[in-house]
Amino acid sequence: MSRLREREGKNTTIVCSKRPSSHCDHFTTAMRPSVHSEEQNYEGYVIYTSDVKSSQGNDDAIGKSIHHHHHHHHPHYLVEPEARKKGRGMDDLDLIERANDDLTFNTREQMASSYHHQACVHLSPSLSPCLDRKLPNGDVTTLARSASQSSAGTVDKVAGRRDKEPALREQQCSLYLAVPPSSPPPSYVRMRTTVKHHVAGTVKRTVPYKDFLVLELDCKQWLALGVLLLVAAALGVGVGVPLALELRSSRLLEARLQVVRRILREVPLIDGHNDLPWNLRKFLHNQLSKFPFHEDLRQLEPWSGSPWSHTDLHRLRQGMVGAQFWSAYVPCGSQYLDSVQLTLEQIDVIRRLVDKYPNHMKLVTTAEGIEEAHKSNRVASLIGVEGGHSLGSSLAVLRMFYQLGARYMTLTHTCNTPWADSSLADEPSENLPMDFIEHGGLSSFGKVSRSLLAFNHTILRWDEGELIREMNRLGMMVDLSHVSVQTMLDAVEVSKAPVIFSHSSALALCNSSRNVPDHVLSKLAINGGIVMVSFYNNFLSCSDTATLHDVIAHINHIRALAGVNHVGLGAGYDGINLTPTGLEDVSRYPMLLAELARDRLWSSSDIKKLAGGNLVRVFTEVEKVRDDWSAVGPTEDWISLEDLDGKTYCRYPGT
User: Fold this and answer.
1) Which residue ranges have biased composition labelled Basic residues (predicted)?
2) pTM as predicted
């Protein structure tokens, strides 16, 4: 131990390092319940400090001091498998970072050691020694914290400086958390401002050291922080503790997945769009007796041979999907023909599918119902009508769709309706000339009169255009995927409730008319709406190939423009034939969130919002507008015959 020897009467900082072939299979932090991981080799950095006063000034004295504190402070241990068999636990540990870099830690100018580390990082405020272990070369690998009284200045962090001012005589309980060089440098480990405001001086010092940042908190500050978090938890307050304290410093996939799975047990993962019902029509003519949804469809024809198939019950469970909007889609070619009938048939097959699997799925029509289904471990199943052409331009049909369970309607699909322009209006070509822009956004039938934006509950009459207003009154979410930019702007302006984009991405990253431009994203924050990011390669990278990281880029872009409260997930599975690498089907959502969590920008509360919290908020606000308008009667206006002239072949004369 000569390399770790201090002069007599001085305090010593010892590094707890390299635990060869060790396993850390029980991970917790002081801020969350225990999380158990499977037995794996977890690698990481660990640095402990202890103020051990060496009265004899030799190796044996230091060793005895270590041994003394080892036996007197043992509420928690870093243990090897053999020690666990003896009944010693591993509380208050959490996985940290895989590292393969040789690092030098200086406890004073006179001494330095270089280690190639493997260990677990201690995140607890408790006094917890490591077990005594030694490296093959004899270097000390043990010691955590000591409760000794300090009569002299403490050795300062890993940089090897010494405080010039005498230290107070109190327990020294500092924690040094090293951040690996592969991690992003700025403000890597920090508590949120809300915590700082309530716990004065929580972050005692954040010191850059080469490629590291080091966080130091003393015992009292740990205690104050712990009390604050416990009170917040008891009150149901969402304290956004950065994921750096849980997982962001770990590159080990299983560790991140463990935390993501915990998050998805707490909040439902909600996907905004799945086209399985259309595949049921296409492959089976909606004959559910021939559809083994409970089996692995990848092994069964015709699903196994189709690039459009990504969903079955088993994979929904693997993906921890808590709620799914099933699309009642019918082709644009049915407009003016039998679109209403076909849509009713698609709503019917969705409801029958849910009824067929009552132990796995539950039909849901409210925001509260999503939470209830999630608590009962069933997939909350909601209905979205994809395309205003399904209405037959009838508000009475809209109301009946709502009664049957539809909770959003996409204003258009890949065709204009008699009252709204689709995204194709923004892509003129030889086949779609500029005059394809029919309405310049929403027609008077599609939108609320701008003269009535200052809504008063006593107003029961509206001057013009009723579709958005009727959707607001019903409590049906307005979906703006597939619509033109001007239609987006009109709808965001006139809707009294937040709008959604059920499966769209960011135009700035992929110049597709199906994506949302930045100026609309900026307005979305004012409206309160949400963009649920699509996983279709052509909308992510504008090519046939894309990866999980392209999805993350779109998520982060929308967050940067609209805010973290305005982004969600709307993959579009079973309606796309090109999926990103890493997100091949509905089982892969946890992989996306685990990879996203590596970014220090994302706290656990942020990930909860992305996964489903934002959609629940939007849905709740839409329901509030509905409730506020309970005194307003239904709109009885019809679309004018002039708007339909020459377009419909299925309308009874004179009606």
Assistant:
1) 65-76
2) 0.63
